[in-house]
Amino acid sequence: MQCIEVLGKQEFSSEKMKKVSLFDTANLFCDLYCLRPGQSQKPHTHQGADKIYFVLQGKGTFVVGEEEKVLEAGEIVLAPSGAVHGVTNHTPQALNLLVVMAPNPNR
Amino acid sequence: MQCIEVLGKQEFSSEKMKKVSLFDTANLFCDLYCLRPGQSQKPHTHQGADKIYFVLQGKGTFVVGEEEKVLEAGEIVLAPSGAVHGVTNHTPQALNLLVVMAPNPNR
């Protein structure tokens, strides 16, 4: 059985946000994103794929489309196909996100 | 922006496990499953779709394929396409799960 204690996988990089792959299947990927203070995933777009961010720990400033909002642990946001989306850790604490995307752009 | 405080959506039913839809897109669904003590999602199979369960609160006894394992808050498990999978709340506390499936069988 492929089961993982998610925050046990956290890894940070001083260079940029760290993506840790949890599952990578024909239909989706599921990653843990780890952002140190000041790090971000720059706004970008995917055509034909939807992404979900769930905040595990910390607070992040999310952009989806033309809106910006600070979300904290326990909150989830959808970045639908075609919508610009990104996230920045504007806080002094680490930010950990569970991220699922489908279909899987790596396949 | 479609953002949700996930556990704020929890709902229970005395009849059976409650599924609360969070996102339902062309590519995936994302639900909150709420299980009272003793409730379960019976083992079943999907061909061509992968499901992820992330434990938000409580403990669940998961079956995937021929394995059974108790997972608790912060743990995630993959039920890949074709694998029998299900979950039971064998505890005296509520069990809340974040569930993502792709592709979306409702579409």
Describe this structure in words.
The structure is a homodimer of 107-residue chains. Chain A has no helices and ten strands. The first copy, chain A, is an all-beta fold. In chain A, the strands form two sheets. In chain A, strands 2-3-10-5-8 form a five-stranded antiparallel beta sheet, with no helix packed on it. A four-stranded antiparallel beta sheet of chain A has the order 4-9-6-7, with no helix packed on it. Chains A and B meet through strand 1, strand 5, strand 7, strand 8 and strand 10 of A and strand 1, strand 5, strand 7, strand 8 and strand 10 of B. Strand 8 of chain A pairs antiparallel with strand 1 of chain B, so a sheet runs across the interface.
How do the strands and helices of this protein lay out in sequence?
The structure is a homodimer of 107-residue chains.
Chain A: E1 2-5, E2 18-24, E3 29-35, E4 40-44, E5 50-57, E6 59-64, E7 67-72, E8 75-79, E9 85-88, E10 95-102
Antiparallel strand pairs in A: 2-3, 3-10, 4-9, 5-8, 5-10, 6-7, 6-9
